[in-house]
Design brief:
Distance between the termini: 12 Å
Strand content: 15-25%
Number of helices: 7
Order of helices and strands: EHEHHEEEHEHHEH
Number of strands: 7
Helix content: 40-55%
Structural class: alpha/beta
């Protein structure tokens, strides 16, 4: 049985991680790759009032149910399907439904904190960090949270100043040192993505 490759793509909020991940997935095709987002593994907070949920520091490693994420990565590496959680960012809760993710030759995991945790890093065959100017990342996050996650501008700015920026400096930015490859999220990364895809195809098709 061929070895399953796990690719980790990290970087700050709004850095362009998802764009890089989706670009690699598109080049490989759905028969070869499965995509996981660390955001899906936010801890369920449905047992507390929404006013309290909104105060949670979602950019701290403790906001993630890392044990479940590691369990799912391990299952996929063993070519077993998983039931991925579905997270509602508007309500800050995990929904009852699940999404079945079938095992593939390649698993791509993307998220801001995936290079912070040693146990996750140890499961990654290739570690990518997407680096982008802070101002660009902030504007991207502001647009996303207002348009896609039902937030208002003032709440996004307040959250960025109170938790997003400090956590980026404390955890995410320092985790770049563990990356095998650093991409710029400010420009097209087609050449870099093609190189990664070429390496992956050489591994899984030989």
């Amino acid at each position: 049985m061929k070895e399953v490759l796990i690719i980790g793509i990290a970087g700050g909020t709004g850095s362009g991680k998802t764009t890089v991940a989706e670009g690699i997935c598109e080049r490989l095709g759905p028969n070869h790759v499965a995509l996981l987002q660390q955001d899906s593994y936010y801890k369920d907070r449905s047992h507390i009032p929404i006013v309290e949920r909104e105060k949670i520091n979602f950019d701290h490693p403790e906001a993630i149910e890392t044990e479940l994420l590691i369990e799912h990565l391990t299952l996929l590496k063993s070519r077993k399907a998983i039931e991925k959680p579905v997270y509602d960012f508007r309500q800050h809760i995990r929904l009852d439904k699940r999404v079945i993710v079938e095992p593939r030759d390649v698993v791509i995991l993307e998220g801001i904190l995936i290079l912070v945790d040693t146990s996750i890093r140890n499961l990654l065959d290739i570690k990518i960090f997407v680096e982008t100017d802070d101002d660009i990342r902030f504007m991207r996050r502001l647009e996303r949270d207002v348009k896609q996650r039902g937030r208002n501008m003032n709440s996004v700015i307040e959250q960025y100043e109170k938790t997003v920026k400090p956590m980026h400096l404390a955890y995410i930015k320092p985790s770049k040192e563990y990356a095998d490859i650093v991409f710029s999220g400010e420009r097209e990364n087609s050449a870099g993505a093609e190189a990664i895809v070429g390496y992956i195809l050489n591994k899984i098709l030989r």
